Fold this sequence. Notes:
Elements: E1 6-12, H1 16-27, E2 32-36, H2 59-71, E3 76-79, E4 82-87, H3 99-102, E5 140-144, E6 149-157, E7 161-164, H4 171-174, E8 179-180, H5 183-186, E9 195-198, H6 204-212, E10 218-221, H7 230-238, E11 242-244, E12 248-254, E13 257-263, E14 268-270, E15 273-275, E16 279-282, E17 295-299, E18 302-307, E19 321-323, H8 334-371, H9 410-421, H10 433-439, E20 446-450, H11 456-463, E21 467-472, H12 475-487, E22 494-498, E23 510-516, H13 526-535, E24 537-548, H14 567-574, E25 581-587, E26 590-594, E27 600-612
Helix pairs in contact: 1-2, 1-8
Catalytic activity: [thioredoxin]-dithiol + NADP(+) = [thioredoxin]-disulfide + NADPH + H(+)
Keywords: Flavoprotein, Oxidoreductase
Protein name: Thioredoxin reductase
Amino acid sequence: MTYLVVHDVVVVGGGAAGLSGALALGRFRRDVVVVDGGAPRNAPADHVHNFLTNEGAPPATLYATGRAEVARYGVTLLDGTVTAAHPIDPAHLTDPAHPATAAHPHDDTASPHDTAMPHDDTAQPADPARPGDQAGPARFAVTLAEGRTLHTRRLLVTTGLVDELPDVPGLADRWGRDVLHCPYCHGWEVRDQAVGVLATGPMAAHQALLFRQLTDDVVVFTHTAGPLPADEAEKLAARGVTVVDGEVAQLEVTADRLTGVRLRSGVVVPRAALVVAPRFEARAAFLTGLGLTTEDFVVGGHAFGDRVTADATGATGVPGVWVAGNVTDPQATVIAAAAAGLKAAAALNADLIAEDTERAVAARRATAGRTGDGAGRQVSGDRGTDGGPGTDGGQVDGGHGTGDDAAVDEETARHWDELYQGRERRWSGRPNPHLVDVVGALPPGTALDLGCGEGGDAVWLARQGWRVTAVDVSTTALARSAAAVTAAGVAALVDFQRHDLARTFPAGVFDLVSAQFLQSPLDFPRAEVLRAAVRAVAPGGRLLVVEHGAVPPWGNAEHHHVRFPTPQETLADLDLDPDGWHVERLDAPQRQATGPNGEHGTLIDHLVLVRRR
């Protein structure tokens, strides 16, 4: 079974604008995917210029460095081509029959924000089948050429443009080397050389005067543009620029270097470089499904191509879609495109924050209406805890959950509190993948989340319609969980309780009891807690136990001697009545994961799933 992933932002185009925007968004802890076709506009050029601190860098080097930098902040990079983008109705995101999602409900990207387990440095892996930790609904479906569909809350388009070159034999082969267009990008490299300007439109005289600053040997070939206006001809003459009439037939190349321009008449004018004015065609055909079309790019009353129009921040006429770089500003240089990407990302992020805040306010008001006081919720717990790590020194008040603070062991609470307080965010915020795999097909009911941590599982369960009791010992973890469910708009479905599971256990029975990585480096009565979990399962309900099966490849060497209980041993610890229980799964699934420092490896988990008859 597959599950929908909704990203915060999909960036289409991995050039300077796209990577710059992705970097800013990644640093804001956004779930970002960059899709790039690997064909940057400036690929034929040898170097990038006027990019402060990167002057003269080869384009490929600049982009490789940029990709490495954004990857450090958890941005997912996909090689591919986007062929279509469409708006989707958030109400249908969980309906597999809806055409917006049925075509490809599985998105196998995942954010590598995942961080280490507290006691073995195990990274929570990026899993292809688990939904994202989005706080808001998807607005757009983005289709790739291979057939995959990505779902996203916002779209940043940085696809750039295609230069349509004059149809002169031999010209395209020299593009980016000795056939040029931008004096700021390439002028210094042809200083004091014989430069030609091919007139195909009204920019020829302007280009010639710019290059005249760099060399005193400039020739304008009128080609198909016809005679120059008298005032322009006068300016060129005053600056010593020669004008040659007649159509250009081809370029002359010797030893892989431009040596001349041949006219239809047969005359060859020696030149070392040729300047052209290509037509700019925005790479934006895939946006038509969003109702976005291109408009003429007009300078001085003349159209030089097309572009996607936007405001000063890059926001288009379609809410949620931003553009940056050459797709909207054909004249932007590499550094200008990078700056535009940052500016658009900042505006886009502010828009997401506004939406997240609006949802949080609505959830808070709904909670206030239900409880009568609008107070926060009491919280506790996390993955691999004694019922949950962390405390911030104060209990999260409010809510209708119970729990017994007096029965909490101070040393246990301090251990998990310190672990959580050591990082602003300990976990990825995503649900545990085996929970998604097992529970995704079940009808919602009541669920008990033992060691809820920062709320990734609780949020996901509530989004599926489950009424969740989330338990942890750490008030810091519980506070973060409460914030997560509030931001997700599901606070009304989650009740937080603080328990030290070694001493107290939540009351009641549940359709699902989930114990995900309930392992601890402290003295913890694991078997007794699991048997208490058995007693908390309602008739027809299920207990899901997922534990580490081995230390990850990047784990601390001192932990590699640790022996983890097998699934069979865990099943024995449950001490089940065989007449009253059915074992549905007993296995050791493997998964690919990324460690806290970018290491890749295979993790082994131990899984036990039992159902009360």
